[in-house]
Design goal:
Blueprint lengths: L6 E7 L5 H7 L4 H8 E3 L13 E7 L2 E3 H13 E7 H6 L11 H9 L19 E6 L9 E3 L6 H12 L15
Parallel strand pairs: 1-2, 1-3, 3-5, 5-7
Antiparallel strand pairs: 4-6
Helix pairs in contact: 1-6
């Protein structure tokens, strides 16, 4: 009798701080248990740059530029189940604080009028992704199957969530694992 097929799990990050990925690593020695149950595709644990077909995708960060839109849509197409992880993915988080500002004014303030940057202009290089007027939560662009809240969610919350999902159960987080600090 052969061993059951391991689920393929991938992660990616958009506009955020990478804190949710750090929390994934904070499951500590339980990573060994997780690796017994899943095969990692693109993640902080691999050096894979492009996501293959996966059973579960974990996405952190909001959508602030054209590259984020491309990455998010491609990730959705490659993942059977997509989980929005953390406040930035769920509601735009801290990057969305710029949403009430005029983008042009914001860029000029940062690149032209800030102390120590005399004569500098707003970067205009085709290599830079085009900024969107607003930072969007991921569910505004693609279908999301589950939301894992927190800023960031703790390693314990990620472990509990993934354990349920991998076992085929609907994820349930006890109130004690939900933190927003």
């Amino acid at each position: 009798m052969s061993a059951p097929r391991k689920l393929r799990v991938a992660t990616t990050s958009l506009a955020g701080c990478f804190g949710c990925h750090m929390s994934l690593l904070d499951i500590d020695e339980r990573l060994f248990d997780l690796i017994e149950r899943v095969e990692f595709d693109r993640s902080p644990l691999t050096d894979i740059k492009h996501c293959g077909l996966c059973d579960i995708g974990l996405i952190e960060g909001g959508v602030c530029n054209a590259e984020n839109v491309h990455v998010l849509r491609e990730f959705r197409a490659r993942c059977k189940t997509l989980v929005a992880v953390g406040a930035c993915a769920i509601n735009g988080g801290l990057p969305a604080q710029r949403n009430h500002l005029d983008l042009g004014d914001c860029l000029r303030q940062v690149y032209q009028y800030r102390d120590g940057v005399s004569g500098a202009g707003v970067p205009n290089d085709p290599e830079l992704p085009l900024l969107l007027d607003k930072v969007h939560p991921v569910h505004e662009l693609v279908r999301i199957d589950y939301f894992l809240p927190g800023c960031p969610p703790s390693g314990d919350a990620i472990w509990a969530f993934l354990s349920d999902l991998i076992a085929g159960r609907t994820p349930h987080l006890p109130v004690g694992l939900m933190h927003f600090d």
